[in-house]
Amino acid sequence: MAGKTQISLQPMKEKLVHTLLKHPRFTSLMVVDEENLTDMKWVQTKVDLDQHIIIPEVDESQLESPDKFVEDYVYNLSKTSLDRTKPLWDIHFLNVKTRNAECVGVFRIHHSLGDGTSLISLLLACTRQTADEHKLPTIPTKKRRPTPSGYSTKKGPCRLLGAFCLFIRMLVNTVVDVFMFIITIAFLKDTKTPISVVPGSESTKARRMVHRIISLDDLKFVKNAMNVTINDVALGLTQAGLSKYLNRRYAVGGKDKGATERNNNLPKGIRLRSCLIFNLRSSAGIEDLADMMEKGSKGKRGWGNWFGFVLLPFKIALRDNPFDYVKEAKATADRKKKSFEALITLTMAQIIIKFLGIKVATELSLRGFSNATICFSNLVGPQEEIGFCGYPLSYFAPSAYGQPNALMISMQSYIDKMIIVVSVDENAIPDPQQLLDDFEDSLNLIKNAVIERGLVKNMK
């Protein structure tokens, strides 16, 4: 996360004691259960904040590029692991003025403390609106789409028939999706592409993490014009950007860069998928988490990982019509919504853990991730400026390292911004900034197509 002002250690420590440290996972150690040596359990411990908050001394006058310094600092952090003799988190504050911030805070949190969505919700519960320090952030909620004309008026047999057809469709989709998931774990791998893990670097966990801030209003512009969702547009620009990047990588050696990019160098039939993690636990909202930390209670709802898995295919191809990227993404997303894939894979994982143990379950899940090409996530953030422990935030950019994939793409909205973060294995993707350029160019391509075709007139 990036702050608008520099950080002072003592005020930050005082704030964390009354916020983050009220959550039991951030004051606990993960130890072996003495009654069942194959299981782990959480044990409360005393937290010394001086061991968790790091503010290195940096001479900015000696930095050629503050942004590159921050990028390298995070990269070097990804080469190390968290100390298991203390709670599995730390935070590094770099009082360095970058292009978009006066200070950068790097939160490092082990995945055992929660899934990405839960952890983001927890951190947001530690924030308040800068306009009113008593108000929690406002997170946009999904609006129910209007019922198709005529459907709500159907009664009796017609409505029952529609429900039955939807059930059959979801059943068929679920069978197909679960079958594809099983054979992916067993043997079905994605097509080998320039962004796949390089042979011999599978054990490399270090990741280069870079980000790009684009306009959320541009995504909304396309969303309204095409009558789709923000997620559809995000998936569409991702497909377009990946296609453009791979087209260039397949043409390595071409002397004329312009001609190379105009030519279609992509092989046909590329299979490229993302393995998505869904936490199906009914997780606490920001209000519940804030109340839990304020009162020091355990909260009304469960916490932790209750994972289901979904394989999301990306169609890699160059399209003459930029709208096709979004239309294809929407079709894929709508198809996945009509499936119980996440619920069934969760049930399968629970059965495997019960009868074969956590190690076997972990090995199988890693095979699923390894046989897919990328990880992808898109998270919704606050609509107004927020402050963390009293310090206003310019943006925040979640990501991860340790995954077996060479590429992880994370998108996070904040006020009128969309932050795209890529976490890459440099052995496979040595130019992550170029990939971000392709994502940004793809959004502009789609937006300009909307303007040229006059679809802006249809916006509401």
Structural features, described:
It is a single chain. By secondary structure, the protein is an alpha+beta fold. It has 2 domains: 2-113, Chloramphenicol Acetyltransferase (2-Layer Sandwich), CATH 3.30.559; 162-382 and 397-458, Nonribosomal peptide synthetase, condensation domain (Chloramphenicol Acetyltransferase). 38% of the residues lie in helices and 18% in strands. The longest helix is centred in the middle third of the chain and has 30 residues, at 157-186. It is globular and about 60 Å long. It is a single-pass membrane protein. One of its GO terms (cellular component) is endoplasmic reticulum membrane. Residues 303-447 form the O-acyltransferase WSD1 C-terminal domain.
Helix content: 25-40%
Number of helices, counting only DSSP H or I runs of 4 residues or more: 12
Question: Cα-atom Rg, whole angstroms?
Answer: 23 Å
Q: Which CATH architecture of the largest domain would you pick?
A: 2-Layer Sandwich
The CATH class label of the largest domain is Alpha Beta
Mean residue pLDDT: 88
CATH topology of the largest domain, by name, is: Chloramphenicol Acetyltransferase
CATH superfamily of the largest domain: Nonribosomal peptide synthetase, condensation domain
Largest sheet report: 7 strands, mixed
Give the strand tally. Answer: 15
User: How are the strands of the largest sheet arranged?
Assistant: 4-5-6-1-13-12-7
In N-to-C order, the SSE pattern is EHEEEHEEHEHEHHHEHEHHHEEEEEH
Query: How many domains make up the 3D coordinates?
Result: 2
Strand portion, in percent?
A: 15-25%
Overall body shape: globular
State the secondary-structure class.
alpha+beta
Transmembrane segments: 160-188
Family: In the N-terminal section; belongs to the long-chain O-acyltransferase family.
Pathway: Lipid metabolism; Glycerolipid metabolism; triacylglycerol biosynthesis
Pfam family, one: WS_DGAT_cat
